[in-house]
Amino acid sequence: MIHAAEGSTASRVGSTDEGRVRSPDAAPFFDLFHTGHADEAKALVKAHHYSGLTPNNVVVVGTMHEPGGLFGDSGPVMAACLFGSPPARWSEPVLELVRLVRTPDCTVPLSVLVGRTCSYIKTKRMADLLVSMADPTHNHHGGIYQACSWKFGGQRARRMDGVTVNGQFYAGRAANNHWGTQSPARLQAMGVDAQPHYDEGKFIYWRALTRSGQRKAERLGLLQLPYPKPDEVAA
Question: For residue 44, which phi and psi values (nearest 5 degrees)?
């Protein structure tokens, strides 16, 4: 259950390299991980994420790069993990993983990227409780979060996530950008034949980075349930 909350106090990350965090379980990929490459991550989302949109609330950007680059610099981005202030208000400060994307030929497991970005957040003390939503509407059951040992908190109730116009789906933000509203009634009044579109109820995953984060999860009433399986999403 999501409760009303104060906004996150985490600071924004710009487009410069903020640093790298070493962890033993990802040693082979250490030199490929960077933070702060917001512009490159945004381009990757536009090209390879099903939404094509980067939220405005991004706080942390973790990226995996191809080896190489001139003068010891990193190569092109091949995967990105974006954390931001949640669009829905929570009664405890949290960061939400809002985009996870990679190129088709990415050679690094996304679980490694998520783990490295979480380590960066913990090291910088930017948050102690992380959440994310897996959308079964797009056949996502949360396998990456399961591989990262995140907790499964259940399935949220169905919600309107955008509109359908002439058979094409527009996410809420895309509709706002295009017409200035995502309200089907207002769009109909503008002469746009828009129908509401509802998701299937997103899966909630969460990870406490500290004991304080665990206490927050308990106060929020976040559950620890058995993981859903891909065939459950397909059904």
Answer: -65, -40
Domain borders along the chain are 24-157+201-234, 160-198
Asked if pLDDT for residue 232 goes beyond 80, the answer is no
Using the structure block, give the residue that is written with the tokens 């191809």: 66
pLDDT surpassing 50 at residue 152: yes
pLDDT tens per residue across span 193-225: 988 877 778 899 999 999 999 999 999 999 999
| pLDDT > 70 fraction of the chain, expressed in percent and rounded | 81
The domain 24-157+201-234 is placed in CATH, from the list 3.40.630.30, 3.90.550.10, 3.30.390.50, 3.30.565.10, at 3.40.630.30
Cβ contact 114:100 at 8 Å? yes
Question: How far from the centroid of its chain's Cα atoms is residue 107's Cα?
Answer: 20
109 vs 91: CA distance, rounded Å: 33
Q: Give residue 41's pLDDT.
A: 96
Contact of 55 with 98, CB cutoff 8 Å: yes
Distances (CA, A) of 227 to 67, 140, 142: 34, 12, 8
pTM over 0.70: yes
Q: What is the Cα–Cα distance from 96 to 41, expressed in whole angstroms?
A: 16
> Mapping DSSP to helix (H, G, I), strand (E, B) and coil, where does residue 152 land?
strand
Structure tokens at 143: 């396998």
Cα 53 → chain centroid:
12
Count Cβ atoms below 10 Å from residue 26 Cβ, excluding itself: 20
- Cα separations in angstroms, 58 against 82, 86, 108, 183, 215: 6, 9, 23, 25, 25
